[in-house]
Specification:
This protein is about 35% helix and about 10% strand. The chain is of the alpha/beta class. An eight-stranded parallel β-sheet has the order 2-1-3-8-7-4-5-6, with helices on both faces. It starts with 5 loop residues before the first strand and ends in an 8-residue tail after the last helix.
């Protein structure tokens, strides 16, 4: 085991571009990569590319007819078949779509292989985390589900148990669907309540089926949940389940769209709380998975102020060189932000809320509180299925 962290990166991922009016602007990836460099983290990680996922790898999760539909739309976007979710408002077809989507998937699969084989202890692919893609269709800005593919590859390589923790503001529906009946994969998603946000799934009663009953976990948070509630919910559910599951590898998805500035959702989480959860995931990997950690990006549509800072913190934590929240962002990076976007970049690596705090669940709960009701609903739905006290 080298112990060195890998950052999976290929400049070609910025070609994952649905067009100038689409919220998923690839500038968020480019600016994150540049901020990693500006803060010197490129010297602390091994920067690695990978081959695009081939058809045999894509078929670990996706149907062959869907892969062919993506290829056809990639070659001629006007021929996109909307029955596969392609050529829609959320997922417009674009030339080269198959190639760049396969590359992002290949980077996540490569991260999983590196961690499993011991080439790295931690691996980060912040271009990944495209968790809405289904076996037979695109959805929610996601063409191929790289998170599911990374997990499927780990299982193929011999992993007995993989835990997946998703803290994107949207439910990790595609990953849940891929492993709905598989007891080898524990999927945990913390997200805004499906009553108020796409994809309208992720209710606490969704717990898996067949042999996988109790292996799907959903915490549906009330709109407006802020730092204290978000962290309270995470710590009231995730650590106990991961400890009980004893995964061989921890895979995490770190969508930055829980932030209070994000234009597409309704939580009120700060950058500092996002950093706190990244630290917690790192600790969980060391406590329960022998340190084996694959960390992915995800959503995030405040593409200048939030996403680059959040994922740069993630890279720093994985590299063992966490960036202090009070760190001043180099002027050179802020100049590049303005040149690319005509926006003013943030000044520091914090929203001014560090250190963040929350009330531990073990200290008691208020059954009249909406956040505590959400946590209780999840614990009551899942914990008894796993032999744990709700």
């Amino acid at each position: 085991m080298s112990g060195r962290a890998q950052l999976m990166w290929d400049e070609a991922v910025t070609g994952y571009d649905f067009g100038p009016d689409h919220p998923m602007d690839p500038v968020r990836l480019a600016l994150t990569r540049r901020l990693v460099d500006a803060l010197g983290l490129d010297r602390e990680v091994e920067i690695v590319s990978a081959k695009p996922a081939g058809e045999s790898t894509l078929r670990l999760v996706h149907r062959e007819d869907y892969i062919e539909a993506v290829k056809a739309a990639s070659a001629d976007p006007r021929a996109a078949d909307a029955s596969y979710g392609l050529g829609t408002v959320d997922d417009p077809a674009f030339a080269g779509m198959h190639e760049v989507s396969s590359l992002i998937a290949g980077l996540s699969v490569g991260a999983a292989e590196a961690v499993w084989r011991g080439d790295a202890l931690h691996a980060v692919n912040f271009s990944g985390g495209l968790h809405h893609a289904m076996p037979g269709g695109a959805a929610g800005f996601c063409v191929y589900n790289d998170a599911s593919l990374a997990i499927a590859r780990l299982l193929e390589l011999g992993a007995r148990r993989v835990a997946y923790v998703d803290v994107d503001v949207h439910h990790g529906d595609g990953v849940q669907a891929a492993f709905w009946e598989d007891p080898r994969v524990l999927t945990i998603s913390l997200h805004e309540h499906p009553r108020t946000l796409f994809p309208q799934t992720g209710w606490p009663e969704e717990t898996g089926a067949g042999d996988g009953e109790g292996a799907a976990v959903n915490v549906a948070l009330p709109a407006g949940t802020g730092d204290e509630g978000w962290l309270r919910a995470f710590h009231a559910v995730v650590p106990e389940l991961v400890a009980d599951f004893r995964p061989d590898v921890l895979v995490t998805q770190h969508g930055a769209d829980t932030h209070f500035e994000d234009p597409l959702a309704h939580l009120a989480v700060s950058l500092d709380a996002q950093r706190a959860v990244q630290v917690a995931c790192h600790e969980l990997a060391h406590e329960h998975a022998g340190g084996k950690w694959v960390a992915l990006g995800g959503g995030g549509y405040a593409v200048v102020d939030v996403v680059p800072r959040s994922w740069t913190h993630l890279v720093g934590i994985a590299a063992g060189r966490p960036v202090a929240p009070e760190t001043v962002i180099p002027q050179g990076w802020r100049q590049e932000v303005f040149a690319r976007t005509r926006q003013l970049g943030p000044m520091r690596m914090t929203d001014g809320r560090w250190p963040v705090s929350w009330a531990e669940w073990e200290a008691g709960y208020d059954p009249a509180d909406r956040l505590d009701q959400a946590v209780l609903a999840t614990r009551r739905a899942v914990f008894p299925l796993r032999g744990l006290l709700a």
